[in-house]
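for the writeup, i need someone to sanity check this before i put it in the appendix. the sequnce is what the collaborator sent (i think, or maybe the updated version? ugh). structure was predicted straight from it, no edits. if anything looks off just tell me and ill rerun, i have time this weekend
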Amino acid sequence: MANTTFLQQIAKVILNEYSDKLSDTIIILPNRRAKVFLVDALKQQATKTIFSPEIISIEDFVQDLAGIRSIDSVELLFEFYAIYLEITEKDKEPFETFANWAKTLLQDFNEIDRYLLEPDKVLKYLEDIKEIEHWSVDVDKRTELIDKYLIFWKKLPLYYHSLYQYLLEKGVGYQGLIYREAVRNLNHFSETVKGKKYIFAGFNALNQAEEKIVQHLLAVDKAKIYWDIDEVFLRDKYHDTGLFQRRFQSEWPYYKTNPYEWITTDYQQEKNIQVIGTPKSIGQAKIVGDIIEKHSNENNGQLQNVAVVLGEESLLLPILYSLPSNVDALNITMGFSSKNNPAQLLMAKLFKMHTNALSRNASSYVLYYKDVLDILTHPLMEPFVNASELVNRINQNNYTFILQKKILELHPNGNELFQLLFQKWDTNSVIVLENLSKILLLIKSNLSRDNEEEKITNAFVYSIFKVINQLISYFSSHENIDNIDTLYAIYKQVIDVAEVSFEGEPLNGLQIMGVLESRVLDFETVIITSVNEGKFPAGKSMNSFIPYDVKRELGLPTFKEKDAIYTYHFYHLLQRAKNVYLLYNSDSEGLDAGEKSRFITQLEVEKQPKHNLSFQIYNADVPDIAHQPIIVPKSESVMQRLKEIAEKGFSPSSLTAYIRNPIQFYFQRILRISETDEVEENIAINTLGTIIHGALEELYKPLIGKILIENDIKICIKNIDEEVLKQFKKEYKEGDIKKGRNLLAYEVAKRNVLNFLKTELEAIQKGDEIQIIALESKLERVLEHPNLPFPVKIAGNVDRIENRNGKIRIIDYKTGKVERGSVTLKSWKGLTEDISSDKIIQILAYAFMYEPQSNGLEMEAGIISFKNLKSGFLPFNFKVDKEIVEVISPEIMSNYLEEIVVLLNEILNVEVAFEEKI
């Protein structure tokens, strides 16, 4: 730490002035954390073995003084609800509604008590304000809602006194109650602690109760108080850092005869202050890492005089990841937020799945597939629940909403953990919580104590286990609150304070802390992040029923006082530091935007002569190329695989896949990586296409080889509904097609098939002679060419081959929209270089494969587009000037094959790597 820190000065005073009565000396600090550093300062300065004096925080001291145990916020809310139900005669609100206003009211009760105000006077004041707000409403015209509203304000004194008395009888209380009782107990307390000496150290803002306690003990010579304020702030009557202490110095009777200790001159000393702006929060984390690495290299790895103070606690993880590898000792004062705790995320997913099921229908208990998969694939579940087979089954069969009993049927041999996860939550809250507790214990039993990573997981699980047990205690003693929605609402509140503590050595290495944890501590090098408005200082928040002007009149703290507290914390960090880095988010627009803090401007305006203040803006290096294309050379094993494909057959779609992107071809055909099965909640376009293809195939199957007549088509039209439904069941399996988008898709499929059959019927009625030759036919043909290294088979499935009016017609169905231009070719040059010619390459490939079976008949190949049925059959056509050729002649086939050979040569050339197209 810096030369002669505040705590070192306190240690010196203790050893010099109280060394003969250390057992009767009690040191009171603003927080518990500072105790470790004070003990260390005493240890360094002590010349002989001594017993340390008692060192406690102000809150612990006040609890001892009052003789009352502190109650946590959730327990207090439960107790208040019990009182509310007892004294409210009618229109009792459910707990969730009650909690919305009760939390704010309890905060106001707390402030009233901490500042020793008369509750009846303040609460009557609020009632009168509300009456005035409705003064214009004629008494006869007042609605029941207004009357209820005004009755609520009238009842506030009753709520306050009932709760206060109830808690007092139980020997527990919220902070304000404890402070008020401590003040009442002051005279008795000071008489019983004869010979004791209390030393208050490092305080700044005190509430009215604290002021009363400290002043009383000073007056009866039971205490000494040591402030930590620089004369720059104390002398400047406009500087918020000294807002509270200027008042104490001028108003406290003690200071009329005693000096104000201590006023320092440290802030005016030489300091290097670097203000660094960078876009986005993550940029700050990277800069922190660079600063620490530079400092570590300059000081032989010594970092115990360095503190990183986070203005925004969410930066903790990015900063930990950005720390250089040579940081070997580290202490993190803040806890790891439960928001990212994997065990908490699992609990949240369980709550979501079961509350959704209950809200749909508690008796049928239907679970949504995403909720189910989220739990089964959670990292804490997947290794232990053994349900991979069930996950595959849900994905393959398109289960979207699954009955709870169906889940158990699909996985009949599920282990105990599986059974607990999917047990119904239709009982009371305590049973649900006990169920969650068992789940966490089962996870814990599966974790190893020797594996370092699993030790960390164990800590996460344990922190949530404690919260669940705490909730069991609450709900067991308050049986009148028994609702799963209430349980979930309370769980979300409690979980916010369920932090996982980091282990570290508090006196060695780099210190990482929040703003409040930095109180009383001094460091030589300080790095402060998120020095932006709304974060440092925190923004205005008026979470109170008491209006601003009333607070000003009654002496309650407003945002002005809260800003002054933040100002003190900020300047105290700078007070004894020699090197200061202030990092802020320079982005003024977007989601993660910020405005430079007023503190930075204040440093500029009020710059001290010895301060070296510099400003920098850091921007990330943006590479010229955002993404380097993947290049995969053709190894011996790749060439072997290409030969296999050549023997089995290149499909027309694989050729177009290569043209579209060679890397896509490499992944799909060489590595054989297929897309994973996922539940299609809404029918995908490709699935819809498969359904239409399948329906047409089944409808036309009985007609293969036959010349079609009108009655054949009319029979097909009658069978549309049945056949399309059958195809839906086959392709979409358990997917729901009775509502929503899927019902629309079902109707679209029926409409497409009907429209196609209508055009077929019209053609027959106009005199076309149509004979179906094949449906979904597998074709193949070996391509031999002198320019190819070896013969290559072309193979694929063609949707339909027919003889229409003496011509062979090869048809490819497309569910998307295809225009005539997509099948029109003007030049053979570059056919296989441009993906826009993919449809031509495909349909001519089908023609090439079928050519030996055409028996000399003229042949045409084309597309029927279901989104462009009015255009009918779209044949391939070669356009030269104004002449259009639709029949696939030997010359056209020869030209086509020359282009395909060029493409195949590139695919089979060992020198040409697979290169990604960007």
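Residues 452-477 form the longest helix (26 residues). The radius of gyration is 39 Å.
thx in advance!!
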